[in-house]
Design brief:
Blueprint lengths: L2 H22 L5 H6 L6 H12 L2 H14 L4 H25 L4 H8 L3 H33 L4 H51 L4 H4 L12 H12 L11 H17 L1 H4 L8 H19 L2 H16 L2 E2 L5 H8 L3 E3 L7 E2 L13 E5 L5 E3 L11 E3 L4 H8 L4 H39 L5 H24 L5 H14 L1 H10 L5 H25 L19 H17 L6 H10 L12
Antiparallel strand pairs: 1-3, 2-6, 4-5
Helix pairs in contact: 1-8, 1-17, 3-8, 3-13, 4-14, 4-17, 4-19, 5-11, 5-13, 6-7, 7-8, 7-17, 7-18, 7-19, 7-21, 8-14, 8-17, 8-18, 10-14, 11-19, 11-20, 14-16, 16-17, 17-18, 19-21, 19-22, 20-21, 21-22
């Protein structure tokens, strides 16, 4: 059976499974829609959390960053994994003990202020839409390559699928759909990794294959060979880092703290029966996440090694079909700068911007692009880094069913997180803005309808951001973590552990942290990208890591304002005591 046919079958079966689960678990109440009824088993919730967490950034882009950035890409592994430890120890059980539906719910009640609730909603929307742009972009990339449609159409199809099971099923439908998506994505990620490892080292275990010798008879280890090849081409050694220590520290910390402040991850711990189950869920989530994260470095290294061997110093007329297939999708390109018909892969960008094809072909048969050549770089090849994981099976000439499985897995990863993000956006609008702030007399039926309408609107906005994203997938997601670190995390942390923090301090801290971080990122990434260099950064900290400074500003402003304003009311102090009872079993005390 042809590979394309297998892709259609695998993707269709996975979509049928997700939609079937959504119909079976359709939400019938606001509690079902917001927190899946509050009775999800910790193991099931851990698997759903892992799927929610392992987004297009983890599945598609993390290994790509490791492949193209080498050692510098390790900040994503350390930051995202370490963040779950913070979440499990510092936040999850206490927030579950609080016993409400959303993150703004906690902030609004803890800080006894509708203004605090509204600011938290604004922060949440900023974070979620920044994050979801990466997910929908990932959906578009998968569809464009494997289903032979334009990226724009791929995003629209993905929007339709998410609409069905997110709007119909709410958190209840999403939870059980994400369990199925986890099974699909982890199988899709690990099977090609086993093939790649065995193909290059004769060791089928990727984690061990990364440290093994190549089976080409040279006696050279994988990383040693990759270092040598990259240095010969003019790149930095794969195992050497180019980022400054302060930037590595800040990016890692921003990702860790941002993880602990991500609303779509936190809300998952509201779905278990009691507080002790929240901690168990976090533990199980780490186990399920580790199944992918420990393999990602090997996938990135193997993929980069294979890509260079198949692209550099190869006549375009002889290049394998995977390259021309990704060219057709607008995600690979070649510009013959020296007219020799041979592809040279070197440091730097081949031309200005992403490829824009004219529809014509050059002398060597290449797709002619209208972009201006970059005279400062000898590089002739453009490769979208988000494609590496998806392209790995094609680059290594793996069986067609493995390629099809990878397509289904990539879609599962992107759709699972997109659904979770859409849910927290709709919940914040319907529950926190309408029910708890502006229209407190709205009926349960009206609130549920409002949640579904808000989810629909969020899907439309998310689709637009997926078609016109502000950066590659994992980078866009990294900005979301910085915004979460600078806005929500300090307010949640101080709300649990600092009884003296009042509403004035919390609001001032969130506004200042979010405002600074968003302005910094917008300046270097949108307004003046030419200035996005280490020499121009504040203290040498990149936009990906600036959330740490935003977090520090949040803490400083909040504590300073709280010191000069009214003390926290006694009943709020008692509330904080109630959610911090050490033996975390049972529901929170009502308030």
């Amino acid at each position: 059976m042809e590979t394309q046919t297998l892709v259609y079958i695998f993707v269709a079966l996975s979509f049928a499974l997700y939609i079937g689960i959504a119909i079976w678990s359709r939400a019938g109440s606001t509690k079902d829609f917001y927190v899946a009824g509050g009775g999800v088993n910790p193991v099931v919730n851990g698997m759903a959390t892992a799927a929610d967490w392992m987004s297009a950034a983890s599945f598609l882009s993390m290994a790509g960053i490791l492949a193209f950035a080498g050692y510098d890409g390790s900040v994503y592994l350390m930051g995202w994994t370490g963040g779950y430890v913070l979440l499990a120890l510092l936040l999850a059980p206490y927030l579950r003990k609080f016993g409400q539906f959303t993150v703004p719910d906690f902030i609004g009640t803890r800080y006894y202020s509708k203004a605090a609730r509204v600011v938290a909603v604004i922060c949440l929307i900023f974070i979620s839409f920044t994050y979801i742009a990466g997910q929908m972009r990932g959906v578009g990339i998968v569809f464009s390559q494997f289903l032979q449609v334009e990226i724009t159409m791929g995003v629209i199809i993905g929007m339709g699928i998410v609409f069905i099971y997110a709007v119909m099923g709410g958190m209840k439908g999403i939870t059980y759909t994400q369990v199925a998506q986890y099974c699909v994505l982890i199988f899709a990620y690990t099977v090609p990794a086993f093939f790649l490892s065995f193909y290059l080292t004769d060791n089928p275990i990727p984690q061990l294959g990364l440290g093994s010798q190549l089976n080409d008879g040279s006696g050279t280890y994988v990383l040693e060979k990759l270092d040598n090849v990259l240095v010969q081409l003019g790149f930095n050694a794969y195992t050497d880092g180019s980022k400054s220590m302060i930037d590595v520290f800040c990016i890692t910390l921003a990702l860790m703290v941002g993880t602990a402040g991500l609303p779509h991850v936190i809300v998952r711990f509201f779905t278990v029966p009691k507080a002790s189950d929240a901690r168990k869920s976090a533990g199980w989530a780490l186990v399920f996440i580790a199944a992918l994260y420990t393999i990602a470095p090997a996938v990135g290294a193997f993929g980069m090694y294979n890509l260079i061997n198949k692209v550099d110093d190869v006549e375009y007329a002889q290049v394998e079909s995977f390259f021309t297939a990704w060219e057709d999708a607008g995600l690979y390109a070649w510009q013959d700068k020296n007219g020799d018909g041979v592809m040279q892969y070197r440091p730097g960008v081949a031309f200005e911007g992403k490829p824009e094809f004219t529809g014509q072909r050059g002398p060597a048969g290449e797709r002619v692009i209208s972009n201006t050549p970059n005279a400062e770089s000898a590089n002739e090849v453009y490769v979208d880094r988000d494609t590496l994981v998806l392209a790995n099976p094609q680059i290594a000439n793996l069986p067609g069913w493995v390629v099809a499985l990878m397509a289904a897995g990539g879609l599962a990863a992107a759709l699972s997180t997109a659904a979770g993000l859409l849910l927290v956006i709709s919940s914040s609008v319907s529950h926190d803005l309408l029910k708890s702030t502006f229209t407190p007399n709205i009926s349960a039926k009206g609130e549920l309808l409002a949640a579904r309408v808000a989810a629909t609107a969020a899907i439309v906005v998310a689709g637009y951001l997926g078609i016109y994203p502000p950066g590659w997938v994992a980078q866009v997601v990294a900005f979301a973590f910085g915004l979460a670190a600078a806005s929500l995390f300090p307010a949640i942390f101080m709300g649990i552990f600092f009884k003296g923090m009042n509403k004035e301090g919390a609001v001032a801290g969130m506004v200042s942290g979010l405002g600074f971080t968003f302005s910094y990122i917008a300046y270097f990434k949108l307004m003046n990208p030419a200035a996005n260099t280490a020499d121009s950064w504040l203290f040498g900290i990149s936009p990906e890591g600036i959330g740490v400074i935003g977090m520090a500003i949040n803490f400083a402003v909040a504590i300073g304002v709280a010191s000069f304003t009214a003390k926290t009311p006694l009943e709020v102090r008692r509330l904080v005591d109630s959610i911090r009872i050490p033996r975390g079993a049972g529901e929170a005390r009502t308030h």
